[in-house]
Amino acid sequence: MHNVWLIARREYVERVRTRGFLITTVMIPLIMGALLFGSAFVSSKSEPGTHIAVVSSDPQLALDLQSELQQQVTRPSSAKHPQFTVDAMDIVPQSAQATRTILDQELDSGDLDGYLWITPAATPARAESARPTFTFTPRSSEQSYLRSQLAAALGTVLMREQLAHHGIVADDADTMLQPVDILTAHVPHHDDRESAEVSITILFVLMYMVIALYGMNVARSIIEEKTSRIFEVMLATIRPEEMMAGKILGVGSVGITQVGIWLTAALLLSASAIASNLGGQGIHVALTAAQIVYFFVYFILGYAFYSSIAAALGAMTNSEHELQQLNLFLVLPLVVCFVTLKSILTYPDSAMARVLALIPPFTPLLMYLRVSLGHPSHWTVFASIALTSASIYAIVWVSSRIYRVGVLMYGKRPTLPELLRWLKYS
Amino acid sequence: MSIVQLNHIRKVYDTKVAVDDLSFTIEPGTMFGLLGPNGSGKTSSIRMMIGITVPDSGSVSLFDQPFTRSALPRVGYLPEERGLYKKMNVLDQLIFLGQLHGLSASVASRRASLWCERLDIVEAIPKKTEDLSKGMQQKIQFIAALLHDPDLILMDEPFSGLDPVNSFLMMSTLVDLCSIGKAVLFSTHRMDQVEKFCNNIALIHRGHLVLSGSMREIKSIYPRNRVLIHFEGGDGFLNHPSIEHVKRYNGNVEIKLRPSATLDEDAQSLLAQAIAHARVSRFEVMEPTLEEIFIEKVQETSPVKNDRDLSLAQLDQPNKGGLDA
Questions:
Q1: Residue B152: helix, strand or coil by DSSP?
Q2: Contact B141, A233 (CB under 8 A)
Q3: In what order do the strands lie in the sheet with B278-286?
Q4: Which residue of B44, B77, B85, B91 is the best one to mutate when testing the A interface, meaning the one whose CB has the most A CBs within 10 A?
Q5: Which helix (H) or strand (E) holds B65?
Q6: Is the pLDDT of residue A319 over 70?
Q7: Across A158-312, where does the E strand assignment appear?
Q8: What are the chain B neighbours of A412 within 8 Å (beta carbons)?
Q9: Could you write out the DSSP letters of every residue in A372-407?
Q10: Terminal C-alpha separation, chain A
């Protein structure tokens, strides 16, 4: 045990002292922060207004539609909708084709995002019941979301027209047509889910990055020792298992230190006034103590799982280059977790989430999402930890055997049958 | 009491027998030379002595006890493939390696400074290992093997790549350690080093023990049938009837005499004939060198054709890749 401690301490001290550690500790939060604030900034400020044209022989309808669309923007419930610029155009029957051509050209050049063509109803005699035909031509399929907005606005406009027909005063009509806003009430213990989602996503990405990064670091440091041949001196006094354990613990502690620094900084920042000034739009860390504790539990499990695989990969290979080829085993399960992130974030208790989160390679990352955002039962959480711990034990067993032989082996990379023979070797 | 005792150890790697039926004993206070060409099983034998690998059959005893890992703090090992943590400060590195051998940090630090003084590399102490020259790194590694005052010192090719001054410094350090009762084993393929310093040797070839015993005994078995002559002038004397074989070099010849009961007289008669033909500046009658004994022995035990060509040039070839047997 003493030897494991010595090796872990050396690994830790030497790594924390490097400039690389300092740089990643400072730079990664800066980059992540810049990305977050940057994307928030881009989505809030530079969203371009939507410019559409309404072509109608009925100028009143066009004007009503114009004011309705522009009004939508000022309502609080539609804060996310972009600014509308609406050009009302008259239609001259003879030059309909010419008008279309001009509009199409404007669509192509990007001046217009779409145009609405209102063809008057065929039988003007029964104007109340017959509705004109509306044809919307968006610039591209990206603009097709405008359709529903247009439909809503048109509905309101036509409704108001009908109400006016029936002799209802404009003010009353407005009151009747006032859209209903549903406010989200805050559940006491579950406040601000949206910002929790953001925080958990950040932690998820953090866990993903740190596990991948430090797992690779374990493999790399083993290769480094193979190339520098230092391990032969070490093996003269200590067991390969001790060496591997020390390495994993040492490198892992560096990772925990780094994450600890980041989290502390994030919590301090969000508690201070600066954060509320800077990131007023919901980008603040809203985490419960349980979410933080679970983060470290699953982080340690995940790290132990992947770093012991990495240790075996490192022991099997002789160079960084060869390691890259085997990298897939390490990165693929992590990527699977990343791919499912969005769906599990939205439905943390779905069947898929429940199954995946119990499969050991995915457990650390996915069960963490479920624990933080969903409602897994206690036994599920317990089972996930137990299953992962058991598989970590198995992997460490296999890895230490591969390590034991592989670390003394140099030359070619072992084949699968050779690997199996290594496992039998004492 | 014996420090190391190998009993019929055997080690087979996938397709290759690295060590086969190897036995020898090392007593305290001996300088033991483990000799053999590359790939003959030297490193494999040493690794089995300290439990890095386990023999397939046979047994290893250290300090009169069957091998256990608890004996390892009494062993100092300098591996053939040198390795140190490149980015680490020299003193930290020595302290770390000392601690792994059971020293406390303060003792390790004090001894490290003393050793650096003794080996004349005090200026290296505060530096990073990667900033040192290769020779200096070797000295650091040498110190690392000795820091914990081991009773058994195993040196795998300790002088490869060292200049003569530093080789001598290290060799005399080892001789000093030997004189205070430590057992030193060093492996080499440089037979000339062994002749000078070793009390005992074991010659191995292809994993088999070819020859072992004390240097004096071994040499005394062999007759003084080698003659070295430096000369100027004609070489007509080389047709002397007692000559079995001649190697010609620039200005000198190495002669092997025919086996006979009267080797001394044959040599004198050869000298007389040489003086008659040329101007002799040096004449020496010797026993065969260890290298010659080795080659002879190898040819006796395994009369395979290519062993005949075994020469120093071949012995010096570095071994590349694969498990170093």
A1: strand
A2: yes
A3: B243-249, B252-257, B226-233, B278-286
A4: B85
A5: strand B65-66
A6: yes
A7: none
A8: 321
A9: HHS---HHHHHHHHHHHHHHHHHHHHHHHHHHHHHT
A10: 21
Whether the CB-CB separation of A157 and A68 falls below 8 Å is answered with: yes
What is the distance in angstroms between the Cα of B71 and the nearest Cα belonging to chain A?
Answer: 9
Going by the DSSP 8-state scheme, the letter that residue A182 receives in this structure is P
Q: Please answer yes or no on whether A6 and B144 come within 8 Å at the CB atom.
A: no
Find out whether A184 and A275 touch, Cβ atoms under 8 Å.
no
Q: What ipTM was predicted for this assembly?
A: 0.71
Name the amino acid, one letter, at A201: T
pLDDT tens digit string along A231-245?
Answer: 788 888 888 888 888
Residue B60 is predicted with a pLDDT of 87
Residue B53 CA to residue B303 CA, distance in Å, equals 31
Residue B282 β-bridge partners: B230
Query: B90, B126 in Cβ contact below 8 A?
Result: yes
Q: Which residues of chain A from 10 to 39 reach within 8 Å of chain B, CB to CB?
A: 10, 14, 18
B13 CB contacts (<8 Å, ≥6 apart)?
B323, B325
Interval A98-123 mean pLDDT: 78
Interface of A with B in 249-288 (CB under 8 A): none
**Which residues are bridge partners to A413 per DSSP?**
none
- CB-based contacts of B185: which residues, under 8 Å, 6+ apart? B4, B26, B32, B33, B34, B46, B152, B153, B154, B155
CA nearest neighbour of B302 among B40, B43, B35, B46: B40
Give per-residue pLDDT as tens, B285-313.
888 877 778 777 777 765 554 444 444 44
Residue B251 and residue B233: Cα distance in Å, rounded?
9
- pLDDT, tens digit (0-9, with 9 covering 90-100), for B171-229: 888 888 888 888 899 888 777 777 778 888 888 888 888 888 888 888 778 877 888 88
Rounded to a whole number of angstroms, the distance between the first and last alpha carbons of chain B is: 29
Using an 8 Å Cβ cutoff, are B28 and B200 in contact? no
Task: For residue A334, give both structure tokens.
Answer: 């992590």
Task: Kindly list the residues from chain A whose CB atom is less than 8 angstroms away from the CB atom of residue B60.
Answer: none
Q: B96 to chain A: which residues are within 8 Å by CB? A: 6, 10
- Using CA atoms, how far apart are residues B136 and B120, in angstroms rounded to an integer? 10
> Are residues B141 and A411, on separate chains, in Cβ contact within 8 Å?
no
A3 and B50: CB-CB below 8 Å?
Answer: no
**How many Å apart are CA A286 and CA A32, to the nearest integer?**
17
Alpha carbon dihedral A218, A209, A207, A329, in 10-degree steps, equals: -60
For residues A21 and A258, the answer to whether their CB atoms sit within 8 Å is yes
Residue B158 tokens, joined: 């300790």
In chain B, what percentage of residues exceed pLDDT 70?
Answer: 92
Helices A193-228 and A363-373 meet at what angle, rounded to 10?
160
Q: Is the pLDDT of residue A127 over 80?
A: no
pLDDT digits (tens, 9 = 90+) for A356-380: 888 888 888 888 888 888 777 888 8
Alpha-carbon span B101 to B95, nearest angstrom: 10
- Cα-to-chain-centroid distance, residue A167: 53
Contact flag A231-B83 (C-beta cutoff 8 Å):
yes
Instruction: Tell me the three state secondary structure of residue A25.
Output: helix
Q: Which helix (H) or strand (E) holds A114?
A: strand A114-119
Note the helical H segments in A46-92: 59-74
Tell the burial category of A263 from Cβ atoms under 10 Å away from its Cβ (0-12, 13-18, 19+): middle
